[in-house]
Write a sequence for this structure.
């Protein structure tokens, strides 16, 4: 592998983080890496954190890196992915799991020596993962009807109001009722054709990567993560005839969202970025023009993960005493 700038992002609250970042920095030095930037959160706990460049901003780390190691759980990896897409889509991402499940951040810390060896030998495979892009506007107030309520990557944006907001997600865009338990009404158009009008607690528009997350909990299908499709999954629809629908990634999905009261709609990207729109709210979704470049080991397939981490095909009868 040619010389690369390495970035490290992580969750400093995890018990294993200090040991893992120390080991990773040691392995990188053994491979001759001298150009490394880590988050200030990790630099504060690393044994030699004062000997590397650090930054408080995931966006700055992404803009200055060629490869990023994400140390934490799937939530940390989602943060890393969103920083990459916003700041520098050419960056490649490697996940090291310090969390509970670690389905996307699949690699255990003790695999880091092998991962580094395989990275330098160009033996890791790159998967281009689909991202979901969303444009949010308000039919009720076309000038200030959209508010950014939360942005974990850039807190300075929180509270901004305007006529439009753009969201990007690796897992899913979820739409819910803000501040109310009432159902929403969704008019769903796909490529300009009416799919249907439904009443439901919410709606999830997921990527194949996100098909094993929130969408699976709502009854959506599990989709192989490099598939070029988008999954539309209602949350608790008030009908027996509405099922999840899969469409090609290049299709445009237009939602018109209304409710019986005056409460706004809440649109959330990967649980980390939130937009509130006055209703009727309009959301246009499609596959994002950029893909996330996820580096994985050849030895472990996606179907291995389904069996070992989600226990797909496991028979509870075999575990009875």
């Amino acid at each position: 592998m040619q010389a690369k700038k390495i970035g490290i992002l992580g969750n400093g609250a995890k018990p294993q983080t200090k040991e893992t970042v120390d080991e990773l920095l040691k392995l990188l030095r053994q491979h001759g890496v001298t150009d490394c930037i880590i988050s200030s959160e990790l630099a504060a706990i690393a044994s030699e954190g004062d000997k590397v460049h650090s930054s408080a901003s995931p966006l700055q780390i992404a803009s200055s890196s060629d490869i990023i190691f994400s140390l934490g759980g799937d939530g940390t990896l989602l943060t890393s992915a969103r920083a990459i897409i916003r700041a520098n889509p050419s960056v490649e991402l490697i996940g090291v799991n310090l969390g509970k499940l670690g389905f996307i951040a699949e690699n255990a810390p003790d695999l880091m020596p092998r991962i580094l060896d395989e990275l330098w030998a160009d033996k890791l495979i790159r998967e281009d993962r689909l991202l979901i892009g969303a444009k949010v506007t308000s039919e009720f107030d076309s000038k200030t009807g959209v508010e950014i309520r939360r942005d974990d990557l850039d807190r300075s944006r929180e509270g901004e109001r305007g006529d439009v907001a753009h969201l990007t997600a690796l897992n899913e865009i979820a739409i819910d009722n803000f501040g109310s338990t009432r159902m929403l009404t969704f008019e769903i158009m796909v490529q300009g054709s009416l799919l249907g009008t439904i009443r439901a607690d919410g709606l999830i528009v997921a990527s194949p990567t996100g098909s094993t997350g929130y969408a699976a909990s709502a009854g959506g299908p599990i989709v192989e993560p490099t598939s070029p499709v988008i999954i539309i999954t209602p949350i608790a629809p008030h009908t027996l005839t509405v099922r999840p629908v899969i469409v090609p990634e290049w299709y445009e999905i237009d939602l018109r969202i209304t409710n019986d009261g005056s409460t706004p709609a809440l649109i959330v990207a990967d649980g980390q970025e939130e937009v509130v729109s006055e209703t009727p709210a309009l959301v246009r979704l499609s596959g994002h023009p950029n893909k996330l470049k996820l580096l994985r080991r050849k030895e472990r397939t996606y179907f291995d993960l389904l069996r070992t981490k989600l226990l797909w095909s496991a028979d509870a009868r075999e575990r009875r005493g």
In short: Residues 132-287 form a domain with the Tumour Suppressor Smad4 fold (CATH 2.60.200.30). Helices lie at 17-30, 40-43, 58-63, 74-87, 112-120, 214-217, 302-309. The chain has seven helices and 20 strands. The longest helix spans residues 17-30.
